[in-house]
Write the structure tokens for this entry.
Amino acid sequence: MSSLIKERVISILENHRGKVICSLIGFILAVIILLVGFFKTLFIIACVLVGYYFGSKIDNEENISDILDKILPPGNFK
């Protein structure tokens, strides 16, 4: 019986991967909003996106100081 359930779950994950992943993300986001609040959750999401941006620049071996010079006033990051 458990192999039938396992096959069914694998079939659902293969055929509806986007729906499952986005549903889990939505669930996790809802729990975070309920636990810490809406604006704190937005702040967490913004920090994650900034970290992802800089991490992708590091992965592409780009110079972080050039990026910071574009964002910050000139000459302050040296």
About this structure: The two ends are 65 Å apart (CA to CA).
